[in-house]
Design goal:
This protein is of the alpha+beta class. The chain contains 29 helices and 19 strands. Among the domains are: 166 residues, Hypothetical protein af1432, CATH 1.10.3210.10; 149 residues, 2-Layer Sandwich (Beta Polymerase, domain 2), CATH 3.30.460.10; 74 residues, no CATH class; 82 residues, Alpha-Beta Plaits. The chain is elongated. The structure holds manganese (II) ion.
């Protein structure tokens, strides 16, 4: 036989194999309940086949067998239709041949071209040399996914086939692909409800990453196989008869845990293979009767089974009343077999089984733009879109927070109105607030979980009823990042702090400029450097931030560091006292006009600190009964009448006392401390805060809480306009059941 003839034979036999595989694809498609669009699928196949002609995979197979296999997974294992099948057949054409997306669009229309384009964009995989590049790839993946979910479904099918044929790859590549699969594709498959695919992806990754451990578990599983089968027969037979008596059409399957799941259980629980008790599970898939709800029938079967075997009281999982976020529905119960072993039994209807196998994605409505569907999957995709809209500058952070959400299993909690919300496990009250609304998250003060007050960091549990308490005065705090777990909350908080940081820097700059101006200087390089070295700070950014946070005494230090020229003195003093009559600027204290003792000093906001000053000992605020004392510098110092200092002054310097009268208009606020005493019950502080911030919209500057022997004492430093405000505030705090007393408090170190 000549060389040429051998080639021809090889090509013929390849063509036979290719045709056989394509026919199998068409067969799978015909068996699905999709509209029959054989023509366009055949056209896509012919086009791809011609484009990849003569190219072989590493295994030696014709290349086209790979797209055909991917298309088969797409229809048979994921349940997608002709558009996805065509896209799967064409998925490597643009990447590997000279054809362009435009060519695909011309021949197959816009939709298929868009999907192929998306697949081409993410064809490089996620893992890369640099972390930043990796994150960029990851973002690209999410972006294409949020544009059309079919892109990622086909990508998962592509990855599944590559994993199934990974054996022919060189080890370095195997490792990379397996790692990537474990890292991102398996969790994605899980999140999309593709449970069997997720299990297979994990198991194959495990096989290539830990070949020896895998082989060991595989061997042990094979060894136990006959014993397991015997147990299954014996365990399931009474269940079978009972279900038949009930008149059900059903399917009973033994579910064997995958090597990977067994290994995971062994390593997380630190147990041996023999100690993994739930290798075998039983699955009942039944056709429900028409005159009763699916839910009721699942519970009837549950009741029938627990009539035969004793149920584990803590291992009932009702995914029917509350399906998982990925759409999973089933009733799980763990019962004790005759030999004392616990066995899990999963109860599902046929419909639930299909969702469990193919995911909600199979029922996905392929709409772009406006979406009226409000499934959990929709909501999840919406969060992804939101995240992508506010990209974090640090791509790695973005990836980490996103992955957090991908891996987490869900809990469900209730709003006060009884609405169910899904959250990742470990989510806190603050995460919940952010989930409801970002604005609510930023203004969150605390929460009531099952009617009890809890801090923001409280970790929620399934079934909790959660009510969020907020205040318009609240703002995100730096430590919040320590206890939020959801990507949404994290990214919103980071965005807030970045903005806050920018504001702080601007504020610091303004303060510094004003301060330097007073000594006749500007914030030039010399001045900045001088300050940096004085405070031992390296970054100007940090300097500004610390100035804004009032952590640096620049008011004191700047005049020392930059002594101002002498001639400025008088002018500056003049500026500082704008309300003093102009001719008094040069006068000394002794020649200042004496306050008229017979006249009442009017205390209004616009002459504070010029006509009078408020005493620091008793800290009067508008509305207090006060008197004035003319000090040595001829300034009226306003004291409360009951102030001990004022009493002393009155007896010793009676002639210097003047009457005062408030005439304020709620322009300025004053710091006031209120002391609250009460029973130390969980959440009482939050209640007090709620009254202060929420009911009164009063700003709080500080608080100190001490709890001792069941009694708590809390001091809250608040900003109020006058005594009326503080009085109603105190009255309302006193209305709280746990509070016994509320008083205005004067710190003892201020008492002179
Ligand atoms: Mn491929």
């Amino acid at each position: 036989m000549s060389e040429e003839r051998k080639d021809t034979l090889a090509i013929i036999s390849d063509d036979v194999i290719i045709q056989r595989e394509f026919d199998a694809l068409l067969e799978d498609y015909k068996n699905s309940n999709h509209r029959q669009k054989i023509e366009i699928i055949t056209k896509a196949f012919n086009f791809a086949n011609a484009a990849h002609k003569g190219i072989k995979r590493r295994s030696g197979e014709p290349y086209i067998l790979h797209p055909i296999a991917v298309a088969r997974i797409v229809v048979k294992e994921i349940g997608l239709g002709s558009t996805s099948i065509c896209s799967a057949l064409l998925h490597d054409v643009v990447e590997d041949t000279d054809y362009t997306v435009e060519d695909i669009e011309r021949l197959f229309g816009k939709k298929i071209a868009q999907i192929v384009d998306g697949l081409t964009k993410i064809s490089g995989g996620v893992f890369a040399e640099q972390a930043s590049l990796q994150a960029e790839n990851f973002r690209k993946l999410l972006l294409t996914m949020s544009e059309d979910i079919r892109v990622i479904l086909i990508k998962i099918a592509d990855r599944l086939h590559n994993m199934r044929t990974l054996g022919s790859m060189p080890p370095a590549k195997q490792y990379k692909i397996a790692g990537e699969t474990q890292y991102i594709y398996a969790p994605l498959a899980h999140r999309l409800g593709l449970f069997p695919i997720k299990t297979e992806l994990e198991n194959l990754s495990f096989k290539y990453e830990h070949p020896e451990t895998y082989a060991d578990i595989e061997r042990k599983l094979a060894k136990d196989k006959s014993a397991r089968l015997a147990f299954y027969e014996q365990f399931s037979s009474p269940i079978k008869s009972r279900l038949r008596e009930m008149g059900y059409d059903f399917d009973l399957k033994a579910r064997i845990k995958s090597e990977y799941s067994i290994w995971k259980k062994m390593s997380t629980r630190q147990i041996s293979f023999e100690e993994v008790y739930d290798i075998l599970a039983l699955r009942i898939v039944f056709t429900p009767k028409e005159d009763m709800s699916e839910k009721d029938q699942c519970w009837m079967i549950y009741s029938a089974i627990t009539g035969i075997y004793r149920p584990h009281p803590e291992r009932i999982r009702d995914w029917i009343s509350t399906p998982k976020a990925n759409g999973y529905e089933a009733l799980h119960v763990t019962v004790m077999g005759n030999d004392g072993r616990w066995v899990e039994v999963q109860i599902r209807t046929q419909r639930m089984d299909e969702i469990a196998e193919k995911g909600l994605a199979a029922h996905w409505k392929y709409k772009t733009g406006e979406q009226d569907d409000d499934s959990e999957l929709d909501k999840w995709l919406k969060t992804i879109k939101d995240l992508l809209k506010n990209p974090e500058p640090d791509a790695i952070d973005f990836m980490d927070t996103f992955k957090l959400n991908l891996f987490a299993s869900e809990i469900f909690v209730f709003t006060p109105k009884g609405e169910i919300k899904m959250l990742p496990q470990g989510a806190t009250a603050l995460d919940f607030a952010f989930m409801l609304h970002s604005e609510l998250g930023c203004k969150c003060l605390g929460a009531k979980v099952n009617h009890k007050l809890v801090p923001l960091s409280h970790v929620l549990e399934s079934g909790d009823q959660v009510e969020i308490l907020s205040s318009p005065r609240q703002n995100p705090q730096a430590d919040w990042l320590d206890f939020v777990t959801t990507a949404k909350a994290k990214s919103r908080l980071r965005a807030y702090f970045r903005k806050e940081e920018r504001n702080q820097i601007t504020e610091g700059e303004t303060i510094l400029n004003a301060c330097l101006e007073k000594v006749g200087r500007r914030a030039n390089a010399y001045e900045i450097n001088r300050l940096l070295s004085h405070y031992q700070i390296t970054q100007p950014k940090e300097l500004y931030q610390k100035i804004a946070a009032k952590k640096l005494p620049i008011e004191v230090d700047i005049p020392k560091l930059f002594p101002k020229p002498k001639q400025d003195n008088i002018f500056m003093r003049y500026l500082k006292k704008p309300f003093v009559q102009s001719d008094s600027a040069n006068q000394t204290a002794e020649t200042l006009p004496k306050p008229d003792k017979k006249r009442t000093v009017i205390l209004s906001e616009n002459n504070i600190n010029t006509n009078y000053r408020l005493a620091t000992c008793c800290q009067p605020i508008p509305g207090d009964d006060t008197l004035g004392y003319i000090d040595d510098a001829n300034v009226v110092i306003v004291h409360k009448r009951e102030c001990p200092t004022a009493l002393k002054l009155k007896t010793s310097f009676g002639e210097r006392i003047v009457a005062t009268q408030w005439n304020t208009h709620k322009i300025l606020t004053f710091k006031e401390t209120i002391e609250v005493k009460g029973i130390d019950k969980l959440g009482v502080v939050i209640e007090v805060l709620h009254v202060i911030s929420e009911q009164h919209s009063t700003n709080i500057s500080e608080m100190h809480i001490v709890a001792d022997a069941g009694i708590f004492t809390g001091r809250f430093v608040v900003y109020v306009h006058d005594t009326d405000e503080i009085k109603t505030l105190c009255d309302n705090i006193l209305k709280l059941k746990e509070v016994n007393s509320v008083i205005r408090y004067i710190a003892s170190d201020n008492k002179k």
